[in-house]
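Example record

The entry below shows one chain as it appears in the dataset: sequence first, then structure tokens.
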Amino acid sequence: MTINVKLTEEEIFDLCQILKTRLEHDQELIPLYQKLANISRPSGDYCDWSNYYSDLDIPKDWVCMSYHNDSLPSFSTEEDHYKAYHVWINSHDDKIRQDNNKDIFGQNYYPRFQVVLCYGYDGGDAFITDDFEEVLKYIKNNPKDKKLIELTKQYI
């Protein structure tokens, strides 16, 4: 069934914020969240996030968690957000990446990829690199143990 409803950009944004808080508790909401997040992007100087990772072969089981108000696009490495890592991806374009590094990190250089425990985790990067293959290896070779899963639950 399809229902046609007119919502303002602000209403869609608010709905996305509500859905985002529920994703870890009800993972069936992820496709709806992604669909709404993709249509709620603001007009103007918004940069299409796919340009940031068009040079990469993102694994099919990764879940795009990018949202227009994030500083960079990001992915959850699997649908179970407690077991997943969160990967932030900077642009492959050197000029854009350098501008982002200054704005986000306050420095000219910061590695392109940041692997963190989970979205919202403020305890630093688990792994940083400029090589996407190293990101894939890190995730494969370092599955979260029970201790890390419990720590993740404190943040999501």
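Notes for this example: Residues 1-43 form one domain. Helices lie at 9-22, 30-39, 50-53, 94-105, 132-141, 146-155.
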